[in-house]
Amino acid sequence: MEKSYAKQKKMIKLRRNLFILGMLSIALINFLVFWVYVNVDSILMAFQINTRQGVEWTLDNFSRFFKEVKMPEFELGLAIENTLLLYLVGTVIGLPLSFLFAYYLFKKVPLSSAFRVVFFLPSIISAAVLVTLFKYIVAPSGPFNELLSVFTGKEMYIEWVTDELYSMKTILFYVLWTGFGGNIVLLSGAIFRIPEDVLEYAKIDGVGMTRELFSIIVPLVWPTFSTLVICATAGLFSNMGPVLLFTEGQFKTMTLGYFIFDKVSVGQYNYPSAIGLIFTFVGMPIVLFVKWAMDKAFETIEY
Amino acid sequence: MEENFKRKSTKEKIVLWIVFGIFAVYAISLLIPFVWAFFSSLKTDDEYYGKVFSWPKDWLFSNYVNAFSQFKVGNVTFAEMFVNSVWLAVGGTLVSVMVTSMTAYTVAKYEFFGSKFLYKLAIFLMVIPVVGNLPATYRLIVTAGLDNPIGILVLWTGGFGMNFIILHGAYKSVSWTYAEAAFMDGASDSRVYWSIMLPQAVPVLVSVGVLSFIGVWNDYQTPFLYLKKTPTLALGIYQFDLMQQYRSNIPVYYCGVLMSIVPVLLLYCFMQKTILTNTVAGGLKG
Amino acid sequence: MKKSKKIISNVLVLSLLATTALGAVACGGGGKEGVLSIAAFEGGNGGTYAQALADGFKKYHSDIDVDVLCDPTVPESAATALESNSSDVDVYMINGVNIGALCENSEGALENLNDVFTSKPKAAAEEGSKTIEQLIDKNFLPSMKYGGDFADFANNYYAIPTGSNPVGLVLNKTALDNVLGAGNWTAPRTSNELIELCDAVQLADKTVKIDGEDHTVYPMIYAGNAVEYWRYLWYCWQAQYDGADAFHEAQACKIDGEYVQDAYFSLGKEKAMGVLETLITRENDYCHKDSMSNKHTVSQKYFMQGRATMMCTGDWIENETGTEYKPDLMMIKAPILSDVADLIGLTGTAAEKDLALRELVDKIDAGETEDARLTEANFDKLVEARKIVFTLANSQIAVIPSTSVNKDLAKDFLRFMYSKEGFEIFLNSTKGSRLPVADYKPSTSFISSMTVFGKSVYDIAESSPNYIFTNTNDPIRFRAGLEEFLANEEPETAMGKTTNAVSAATYFSTEKGLLSDMWSALMRQVQ
Question: What is the pLDDT of residues B223-280, one digit of tens each?
Fold first, then answer.
C-alpha cells in the first residue's frame, strides 16, 4: 500500500515536471536560439577590437567610455542626464497620471469610450508620422507660433525643436503628451479585473472616490502598476525616446539609447556593445531595487 | 451608464465634470494634428507651403485617389497589404500571447529549480541593449528558410519580454484557492491552467493582446527584411514615407497617412467593444 | 482524458513550431539560377532605371529571366543581407556600401569584380578597344577597391560606379533677377564675391509673392536635416587650397602615405570653415531663418519658389521638387577660395587681390593658358583649383554579393550597363544621370531637351572636372571608426544654430584636440 502511494506521488511529481517543461519549452528554445545563439557574438564584441592582425581581445572599449564620459564634446554625460529626464517624465510623472486617467475612465466620465479611443491614438499611429505632424505644427513659421503671436501680440519665432534652449523640453513634452495610451489600456485591464462586489460593498459603506481610489483600487491594481514601473526602469538606459525622429541627437538632446544607435548605424559595434554592458551592470541593481521597493509598498493580494 | 452616473453624489459629479474638462482639452490637443493633416491633404503642394492658416482652395479629394494609387509595394495593392497585415498581426499576437502566458503562468505559480532565476532573466533581457545582432538573426532566419508568412511567426515565440513581466504580475495576483480545489478534484496541471487560471487573466491577456497586435501591425522591419513578397501595410507606409523624401508632395503624403490610420482605428474601436464586454464577463466561469 | 488533453495541447503547440519550420523550408529564401535578381535604390533619380536596364539586357539574353526590385528600402535591407552574407540578390544598385567592413568582418561578402574591370563593355557584342577600367574616370577607381591590407582582398575591385552627376552651389537665376535686376549680378567667381552677392541680396531687401503672401528673399537657404549639403561647396574650398590629391589623402588621414594627425586638419580646411562660418552664422542672417528647422524637401521647395537665391544641392532638385514654380536654376562651379590668392603669389590689398583673382578665373574659364601676373606653376595651380568639383558618384555603386547564384550573368549585366546602350538607357531613364565615362556623350537630342539647369550641370560635367568626394575606404575610417567629424555635433549645425553657436576656429581646435586624444587608440587598429 505504501509502495504504491509513494509511486503515485512520484508519478504526480513527474507529470508536474513534464507539465512545467512543456509549458516552458517553446520560450526556452526561442531564448536559446534567438537570443543566446544570435547574441553571443554581439556581446563578446564589447571585449574586442578589429586590428590589422584581425580581432583582438581588450578592455579598451570600456576604458574609452570612462574617458569620454568626462569630455563634453562627446555628450555622454549629457546623454545620461537626458535619459534620466526621459525616465522622470515618462515614468515617474507619466505612469501615475496614466493611472489617474484610467481610474476616471473607469468611473465613467462622460464620453469615456470616445476618450479611450482618442487617448490611444498616438500609440496606434506610427511614431514617424506623429512626429512629422508634431514637428510641422511647432515649426518656427508654423501654426503653433502663429497662435502664440496672436495671443501675445508679439511676433513669436521660437525654434522649439532646433533651439538648444527648448529642444529637450519639447521632446519631453511630446513624450508625456503621447505616452498615456498603452499604459491606460493595461491599467484599465487591471482595474476591470477588480470584483464588482468589492466596490459595491465599499459604496454601501459610504466610501468616497478618493478613499476608493487609494484604499481599494491602488492596492488591488498594484501588481500591474508596479510591473509597468519595473518594465520602464528596465528599459531606462536603452530607451532612446523619439530622439531619432526629432533631432538625431543634435541641439543637446543626446540620449544613451540614441548614442548607441548612432554608432551602430555607421557600422561601429564594439564600443556601443561595451557601453550597453556597462549600463546593464548599472541598470540591473537599480531595477531589482525598484522591484524590491514596489513589492514592499503593498502586499500582493490574490483575488 | 447613465444610471451609474446618476447614482453618484453631487461632489463626485463635480469632480467628474472637472476631469471631463481636462480630458476634453487633452483629447482636442491630440486630434488637432489629424484635423490639420486632413485639411492639408486637400491642398496642392505649393498651397501647403503658402499661408499657415488657410482653407484649401480647391478641395482636392483627388489627392486621395493619387495616394491610393501610389500606395503600392511592387505590384501588391492596398487591399492585399491589408490582408497580409491582418495575418501577421493576428498570427503574431496569438503566438506571442499564448507562449508568454504559458511561460509567465508557470514561473509565477510553480516553484521549481530556476523559477526565480527565470524572472530575473526576463528583467535582464529587458535591461541589456544588444547591438549588431541583426545580421546574425537575418542569417539564421534565411538559412532556416523561415522567411515566409508562416515561418516568420517563429520570431514571436519569445516568452520573456515586457508582456512576461506583466502577465507574471497578473498571474501572481490570481488566487490559488480555485486551483487547489480543482487539484483535490483530480484535475491535472494542464486542465487547471486552461480551464481555471487562464480565464481569470483574460482582461489582462486581452489588454496585452491589443498592445501586441498594434505593435506587430506597425512593425515594418520584419516585412522588409523577410517578407518582401508579401508586404504589409506598415511596410507600405514606411516606403511611402521614404519616397516622400524624394518626391515632395506633402498633401498626398498626408492622404496616405490618414488612409493608413483608418483600418487600425476601426479595428481598435471594434476591439474596444469586445474588450469591454469580455472584461465584464471575464472571471470565474462556473 | 485529462492526461491526453494535456499531451494533445502541448503536442499541438510544438507541432505548430515544427510545421512552420518544415513547411517554410519549401518556400524559403535563396536565389534561383537563370533568374537574375536585381535590387535597386529608388531615390531622387526615380525607380525606372533598373527595369529599363534589365529590359535592355534581356534583349541579348533571351533565355533568362530578370527580376527587378526597386524601392527606397533596398539600401537598408541590402546592408543587413550583405553583412550577414546571406543575400539572395544577384546585383545591388545602391548608394553606399562599406567595402572594407564587408570584406574584413563578413568573410568577404562581396564578389571580386576584377574581371569586369579588365573586360570590355558588351551589349550585343564587345565594344571598343578600352577596358571598363580604362573608361571609368580614374578618380573613382581607388574607392571601388578594398582599401585595407588583408591579403585576401588587397587591390581587388568590389564595386563599380553607376550613374551620377556633379553637385554644388545652385543659383536661382529667376530669384536673383527679381531681387537685383537682370544683368546686375554675376555668378560669383571667388568666395569674397559670393559674400558680396549675399550682402547685395540682403541690402536689396526684396520680397517675393507666394500665394498672396509676401516673403522676404534671403541670399541662401539650407536644410537642418541635410547640413552635409554644405560640404558640396566648402570641401571644394579645402581642396582648392590644399590640392585635390592632398584632399583625397586627407580622407584617410594621411600625408604622403603615412598616417599624420595634421592631415585631417589642414590649413585649407581651417580657411574653408572660416568662410562657411561667415555664410551660415545667424549673426549675418544670410540664410533663410527656417533653414535649420526645415527638411531638405521643404528648403528645396522654398528655393524653387524664390524665397532664397542660392542653395547647395544636387542635380535631383528639379526632379524631386514638383511645383508650379519653374525658375531658371544654374549650378556653378565652386567659387575659388579667396585665400588662394596668397598661395599663388598675388599681391596688394585684399580687394585688389580678389579682383585679380576674379579676372584670372574668367580667363581660365575662357580657355586661356597663361597670365603675366602669375608664374606658370601658379597658373597651373589655379587651373587645377578651378577644375575641382564635388560629386557623390563614388557612392552610387553596384555590387555583386558573394552568395549570388548567377555571378557570371550578374557580371555580364554590369558589362552591359557600361556599354553605349547601357549609358543611354541610364541617362534617359534618370533624366540626366551619367556613368563616369568621359568618352560617352549624351546625344544632341538629349542635350537639346535639357532644362537650363540640366544644361548647367552638363556643362560642368563636360569641363574635364577634377572630382573630389568623401571616401571611407581607408582602414582608419572603416575599421578604427574615425568619423568625418569627431565631436557629436556637425560643424554646420554647431556654427549655424540659434543658441550657443560656435565659431569655426573654436570648432576646429576642439576637433584637433579630440583627434589627438584618440590618436593612439586609432593607430592601434591600423598599424
Answer: 888 888 888 888 888 888 787 777 777 888 888 778 877 877 887 777 776 655 554 4
Digit-coded pLDDT (tens) for B104-120: 999 998 888 888 899 88
Q: What domains, with CATH codes, occur in chain A?
A: 2-57 (no CATH), 60-124+179-297 (1.10.3720.10)
pTM of the complete model: 0.90
Q: Is the domain of C382 the same as that of C403? A: no
Considering only CB atoms, A49 lies closest to which of C10, C148, C525, namely C525
C200 min Cα distance to partner chain A (Å): 25
Q: What's the rounded Cα separation, in Å, for the pair A291 and A296?
A: 8
Higher pLDDT, A148 or C44: A148
Interface of C with A (CB under 8 A): 3, 6, 10, 13-14, 17, 98, 101, 104-105, 148-149, 224-225, 289-290, 292-293, 475, 478-479, 481, 483, 486-490, 493, 497-500, 510, 514, 517, 521, 524-527
CA pair distance C493, B177, nearest whole angstrom: 64
In three state form, how does the secondary structure of B124-183 look? Answer: HHHHCCCCCCHHHHHHHHHHCCCCCCCHHHHHHCCCCCHHHHHHHHHHHCCCCHHHHHHH
The domain locations on chain B are 2-67, 74-281
- Do both C141 and C189 map to the same domain? no
Higher-pLDDT residue of A200, C357? C357
Query: Which of B165, B122, B127, B120 shows the shortest CA–CA distance to A281?
Result: B127
Cross-chain Cβ contact B191/C6 below 8 Å: yes
Q: For A202-214, what is each residue's pLDDT tens digit?
A: 888 888 778 888 8
Domain that holds residue C95: 35-164+393-440
Q: What is the count of structural domains for chain C?
A: 2
User: Cα distance from B131 to chain A (closest Cα, Å)?
Assistant: 6
Q: Is B182 on the interface with C (CB under 8 A)?
A: no
**Which of the four pLDDT bands, split at 50, 70 and 90, describes residue A1?**
low
What is the pLDDT at residue B7? 58
Interface test with chain B among A13, A174, A185, A200, by most B beta carbons within 10 Å: A185
Strand, helix or coil for residue A101: helix
A186:B204 CB<8 A = yes
* B253 touches B244 (CB < 8 A): yes
Categorize the per-residue pLDDT at B134 as very low, low, confident or very high, splitting at 50, 70 and 90.
confident
How far apart CA C322 and CA C336 sit, in angstroms, is: 32
CB contact (8 A) between residue C292 and residue A159: yes
pLDDT for the residue C376: 93
- pLDDT above 70 (res B165): yes
Q: Kindly state the cell numbers that stand for B237.
A: 507606409
Subunit contact B211:A283, Cβ cutoff 8 A: no
Q: C117-131, C181-195, C225-239: lowest mean pLDDT where? A: C117-131
Whether C183 and C72 share a structural domain: no
Per the CB < 8 Å rule, is C83 touching B134?
yes
Touching subunits for chain A (3+ Cβ pairs under 8 A): B, C
Closest-CA distance of chain A to residue C13, Å: 8
Cα distance between residue A269 and residue B134, in whole Å = 12
- Are the CB atoms for B223 and B232 separated by under 8 Å? yes
554590369: which residue's cell?
C414
Inter-chain touch B51–C323, beta carbons under 8 Å: no
Residues 122 to 161 of B: which have CB under 8 A from any A CB? 123-133, 136-137, 140, 154-155, 157-160
**Can you give the pLDDT at residue C2?**
47
Shortest CB distance from C293 goes to which of A15, A29, A139?
A139
What mean pLDDT value characterizes chain A? 88
Q: What is the CATH number of domain B74-281?
A: 1.10.3720.10
DSSP C351-397: HHHHHHHHHHHHHHHHT----TTS-HHHHHHHHHHHHEEEE-GGGEE
